[in-house]
Request: fold
Amino acid sequence: MGKSLRQAVRATVHLVLAAVMTFGLYIFITVLIITAVGTIAVAGAWLLPETVLVIRRIAGAKRQMTARWTGREIPEAYQAIEGSLRERLRIAVRDPGTLLDLRWMVASYVYGALVILALPLWPLALVVDGAWSGVLRRSPVVLPLITKIADLEARWSTALLRPSPKALLAARVKALAATRADAIAAHEAELRRIERDLHDGTQARLVALSMRIGLAQRAYDRDPEGARTLMAEAQNQVQEALTELRQVVRGIHPPILTDRGLAGAVRALAAGSGLDVTVEVTGGLEEGPRPPAAVEAATYFAVAEALTNAAKYGGGRRADVRLERLRTGLRAVVQDDGKGGADENEGTGLLGIRRRVAALDGGVMVSSPAGGPTVIEVQLPCVW
Amino acid sequence: MRVVIAEDNALLREGLVLLLRSAGHEVVAVVGSGPQALPAMLEHRPDVAVLDVRMPPGFRDEGLRAALEARRNIPGLPVLVLSQYVEESYASELLGGGASGVGYLLKDRVGRVDEFLEALERVAAGGTALDPEVVSELLTRRRDTPIDTLTAREREVLQLMAEGHDNATIAKTLVITERSVSKHIGNVFLKLHLPPSDSGHRRVLAVLAYLNSPGQGSS
Reply:
């Protein structure tokens, strides 16, 4: 009885909100007509794209509201309204999403006020269910009806607001084009960084080294002691050049990934991070087949960046890393015990990680409330 | 000689100073960026300036542009430009204002200390020092031109001449007599339709002007 009652209250709240929105729409339709007239009269052409944007927001709110009731997301697929006025007008009118939203608006004229059906059920429910289940201990019969009405409302809304498969596909293509462009940009930035590292580091060191050897050769007969000093300096520079080369190589593709796989490489990161780090590997990541090299590398760099940030800014003493093999991908979670409040816009490290991960169709989630902890979660899709 | 050095990498800067001082030259100014290079050259009017191509602030071709600008202000100011890689268009730009007192070498050459110092002195004296790789690129760029009619030996002579070497050096490098060098040079000039000329550096200039001009037919 208590459960049914709570459920019925929730259903009523849902229906009341839906009705409130519908009444709002009654007023909004008037604005819509004014815009349409204005557009036809050309003078108000700029109003149309703006109005479509407002419609999108309203439909978006409705999608969220419905998703809250059903627990299932309703996808959105709109074309971005941008460019010159002419283009914006064209997109606003041509976008299938516009028609979809209008169809829903008109339909909700009729079904949006379903709460009118639900409200009279309440006194009935109090009388019938109050006697039926309160006194006779049977399961209530009228209260679930209210829930049913809310279900009906949500089902209709879902059906009306779900974009066509074609529109979803178009949105997916758009998103892929954007991540692809990002991937290319990230790749180029990476190449530039490597070129810079080699140019300013290794190459310069080798030239300096060659210079020392040349000088030593000249000094060989005249000043053997000086030549010896120059050769010692040359040897130091060889060591430094090798160290730098190792760093450059590690920045391109960490050799330990090749040698030990992702779990081993992350454990090595943990051991060298300066924090007290635990590494938990689940889902058979270590025993099963290895993820693609790009996924491994992106995960590795993301974990490395997260640990570096935790040690540098977090102010905590320990961190937990979780690597998890999912059915359709790979998830890495890094959580520290620091003070939180990490600002993603500070520094480019996390941005680079985001790009790298997005390029592989994955996502990065950062949660860092003031007071901590900071949690960074990376999820990458891959086929096992 | 009084030398101005413009190089942003501390290691190389220090190495260059060491090298030039050990050879008895005076380093009058050392700067580490493009914008600093021009005033240093204008102020000190050195016998030769050694510049790195890529320097702050942009890490692009700041050194090259400073060299070109300095030569516009002080015509004939000897400049030796050092580069980590060969970029033929950089050489062309440098030679565009006349090849006298111009050098363009790969940084790698600095290690051959004697050759580097010799090149530096040549540039300071108004001569030319072009990296062998630059000359090779200039020569390949001019394919399908009269250069293809040259014999292998004549090409070698042309290559060395374009690098800025005099007859004696060419003879020594190729292990032939100076007389045969002169003969080969005569043939090269004939085949490239250049007016004959006997003075050493004037011939280098003629060859470089030829190589640096847009190719006939294809490029």
